[in-house]
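Q: For a teaching handout, I want to show students what a protein-ligand complex looks like in C-alpha cell form. Below are the inputs, and the small molecule is adenosine monophosphate. Please produce the holo structure.
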Amino acid sequence: MPYSHKEHPICADLHTHTTASDGSLTPTELVHAAAARGLSVLAVTDHDTTAGIREAAQAAQAVGIRLVPGVELSAEGPPGKCHLLGLGIDSENDGLKRTLAELSESRRTRNDRMAGRLRALGVPVTLEEVAAVAPPGANIGRPHFAELLVRRGIVGSLPEAFNRFLGDDAPAYVPKDVLSPAAAIALIQAAGGLAFLAHPGLVRLAAHETPETRLSALQQRGLNGVEAYYSQHTPAQTERFLRIAEKLGLLVTGGSDFHGSPKPDVPLGVVYDGHALPLERLPVELRAGLAT
Ligand code: AMP
Ligand code: ZN
Ligand code: FE
Ligand code: FE
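A: Here is the structure, written as C-alpha cells, with adenosine monophosphate included.
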C-alpha cells in the first residue's frame, strides 16, 4: 500500500548501528543523519553494547528526535542461533551493563586467539593493529580484522576477508561467548525492554523448523515480538512474518539495520517499501511508548 511522508509524519527506523559497534557514523552523526532524513523516532541497536546510547540520546534531544535506547544481542543455543533486538531498554541497568562488560571482556580473549590464528596462517597482525582501525570505544570484532586485512592489501575486499579468513567456516574464525536466546530475552526484559527476533528472514533454520516454529519456540522463552519489517525482507517475507506475528500474538517492529559504509546498500530510514516505517505500522503496545 503506497503512502507518503506527508500523510505519515511520524516515521521510525528501529534498527541502526553506530561506531559503538560496527557502524561508520558516531551516535551524534547518526542522529543528525536521521533528522536530515526526516525520521521522528530512531532506535540505536548496537551489537552487544549500549556505549553509544547516551551520546545518541543527547544529540536526539538537541534535534528533537525521539531516541529509543536499544541493543542487538547475538544469541546461540536452543532453539538456534539468532539476533535479539532489545528496544526501550534502560541502558544504565546494572545487570545489563555487567553482562555486556563480561561479553566484551571475553571478546578480548577471542580477538587474541583470532590474531594468533591469522599469524599462524602467515598473516602478521597484532591486536594493537586491529584496535587501531576501530573507532575509539568500539566493540572490536571480525569486521575490524577484515578492515585491517583490506587496508594491508592482504585481501581485495571485506567479503574476501570473511571468505578466506574470518567467516564462520574460515580458518581464522574463533567462536565468541554468547548468551542463549532465553538469557538474552531475560536480560533485555530485566532492563525494562521488549525483546524481538531481529531480521527473521535472515535466520538460518534447521531442516525440521519453519519460521513459525522458531518464533513459537522463542515465544516460549519470553520473546515479545518480531522484526517483520526489515530492509532486506521481500514484500512476501514481510507479509509472512506479519501473519505469523498475528497468529502467535507477537508484537511487530521494523528497521533498516543501517551501518553506514560497511553496508553501503542499506540506507538509513529505508525499512519497508522504500520508506521509513510509519508509526501506525507498529502494534499499539509499541507505538504507545514511541509517540511523544
Ligand atoms: P563478530 O561479532 O566479531 O563475530 O563479527 C560479526 C560481524 O561480522 C557481523 O555483524 C557482520 O557485520 C560481520 N560478518 C560476519 N560474517 C560475515 C561475512 N561472511 N561477510 C561479511 N561480514 C560478515
Ligand atoms: Zn553489525
Ligand atoms: Fe543482526
Ligand atoms: Fe543489526
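A: Two things your students might notice: Residues 1-5 have pLDDT under 50 and may be disordered. Strands lie at 11-13, 41-44, 66-75, 82-87, 194-197, 225-230, 251-255, 277-278.
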